[in-house]
Amino acid sequence: MDARYFITAAFSVATAGIFFPFSLSGKTKGEDRKAADNGLNRPNFIIIMADDLGYGDIGCFGSTSVSTPNLDRMASEGMILTDYHSNGPVSSPTRCALLTGRYQQRAGLEGVLLTNVDKHRKAGLRQNEVTFADVLSGNGYDVVMFGKWHLGYLPQYGPLEHGFSRFEGFLAGNVDYRAFVDSQGRPDWYDGTEQVTPEGYLTDVINARGISYIRENHDRPFCLYLAHGCPHSPYQGPDDPPYRTAGSSEFNPRPAKSEAETYADMINRMDEGIGRIFDAVRDAGIENDTFVIFVSDNGPTGPGSSGGFRGRKGGLFEGGHRVPAIVWMPGKVAPGTVSAEPVMAMDIFPTMLDLAGIEYENAAKPLDGKSFVPAMEGGQMNERPLFWKYRTQKAVRVGNMKYMEKIEGRGDARERVSFLFDLGTDPQEKVNLIQERRKEAAKMKRLLDGWVEDVQSETKDQTR
Fold first, then answer.
1. Are the CB atoms for 258 and 231 separated by under 8 Å?
2. What pTM, to 2 d.p., does this model score?
């Protein structure tokens, strides 16, 4: 089935019969605000990133097992992006690309920063990298972050060194949802650089911090980055006890409920909090001045669903990096629309600058990402090749054609396998065209190899 047809049909079913009491065309509290009320009259930005959420894990993207009425409402009032991709099939690379607007390899962060690897604990997002927080804060924005960082464990790699005026969250790839300790039993929750232990359920804490921030800071342009840990493991529902204990890498017994049921409960709880985020935006009267985007950092694992796409987290088949994305911006995005334009995580940075009318002026760190404002307005983006690389896998996409290489097998049986797919007719990547279209594959391979050489020219030392 064609991916665009599938998601359009799923969106129609998910939103049919739902009553939304707020009209986007009606007069709002903030409609008559003067430019001075919001600094330079620039839009506010809210980026909500889920963790390991698959393409098929929310209602408006076809899920029948997870209830997400607030994300479904966001889609009905905004736009779903059916061809949105994370820059990497794992966490740290995508977060690096999101922040820098560049391929993560340029910053040496091709792989995930593992909490139990000494080399990784000493690595991170270098201070000379330019982030959207740096640029926005230099142009009158207050830029804050709550939730998962995963771009360095040492203070010099932290959010406060990269343009954020405030950070509260965790540094590792995941923490216990109740005990706030990482997989090695280390306490991992910080207010700035001070280690603290919050009360409550991880997802609720992150949403609550965002809601409080909006209520208290809506009188100036802001950028709020909410990086959820949900639904990454450990799979803990809102009513479950701690799974980990500080000082121990041993896990407590799991609750009797199945992982699939718990997974659904986790996503539903995140969805409830996102609904309250939107309530805070409306209560503040800034809905006509605010851009909100919801995305995931990579494809699913565990009980998650890739929505029919081949592959999962950690791989470069579509299921590893094609993830759900919803954009909401009244007045800029028509309600209930769908865009099939290819978009990547690194495109969010230039899109925010485009919407804010800010010029990016760092010639030494040119952006790889492109603004997707044309797609938001119902148009098309200029075609460009898109690239991915993770460990022994690499891929390039030109139009609907995707060329991919990966190493399969072990030891002496290891071999490089090549694939060529036409995503226009075969979005599930079932038919390998490599034998029938050798010349096209060879041309795409040269393009891919040239890109690898280019992005690694700034640093050969990649975390993997």
1. no
2. 0.92
